[in-house]
Amino acid sequence: MLYQVKAGDSLSSIAARYYGDRSKASWIASQNHLANPNLLYPGQQLQLPDLPTTSSISLVSPALLSALCPSLSSDAITNFCHALDLDLPKAQITPPLCVAHFMAQTAHESAGYAQLRENLNYSASALSSLFAKYFVGVDVNSYARQPEKIANRIYANRMGNGDEQSGDGWAYRGRGIIQLTGKANYQAFSQGWGVDVVSQPDLVATDPVLAVASGCWYWQKRNINAAAEADDLTKVTQLINGGTNGIDDRAHLLGIAKQQMNLN
């Protein structure tokens, strides 16, 4: 339906009124390609599409999500299933084999949709092992177990971030189901999806619709559907990960997804 904004309206109040759920504000913004969802004006027209209903065919069933993400609460499963039904079609991730690969990969990347913020709480030895090139001539002990300081160091001056003192590394650390990282990627996702996460980056971790949308955006940007439709787990993993880290667990999760979706 077409809705005309009235004085005093906000996206969250509109979402609460028409969907009974204030969290759907981000979806309204996305569907209407609003660069700044906080700027509405009386007379502005917004498209309010119908939400999937319980009678709709769901791309991701609660049983599938529960099998892949056993630590999720029933409320979280409901919220993520709704988010997946909203976001997957927008990124054209609808062929069953693509959905199976997407769910397996994102379940691995997010530890079962339970870790939507990057864990940067590294010890000195881990920093020396994983990020040695960023600590040449620097005492890693002065960074150990300080996630914000670590992020600002290892993500400085790349991926659109400023220098270490800018704080961009921490502000735009990995979030969402595929760990959207770097200011440039937050900007590109905001432009591509029509929701401002540059000024509010933590929405990618706290809003299920945007946590899923960020993964869908990245998947579409990398054209991962092609490898998924070829059922090429190695290629899909390389496109997600840059290598084949965790491929055994990814294969295990893909097997679960295929079994739940009757794709074996």
TrEMBL record:
Domain named LysM: residues: 1-48
Record-linked InterPro entries: Cell_Wall_Dynamics_Protein, Glyco_hydro_19_cat, LysM, LysM_dom_sf, Lysozyme-like_dom_sf
SMART domains membership: LysM
Domain of life: Bacteria
GO molecular function, one term: chitinase activity
Single GO BP term: cell wall macromolecule catabolic process
Cross-referenced Gene3D superfamilies: 1.10.530.10, LysM domain (3.10.350.10)
PROSITE patterns hit by this protein: LYSM
Name of the protein in its database record: LysM peptidoglycan-binding domain-containing protein
Lineage, top ranks: Bacteria, Pseudomonadati, Pseudomonadota, Gammaproteobacteria, Chromatiales
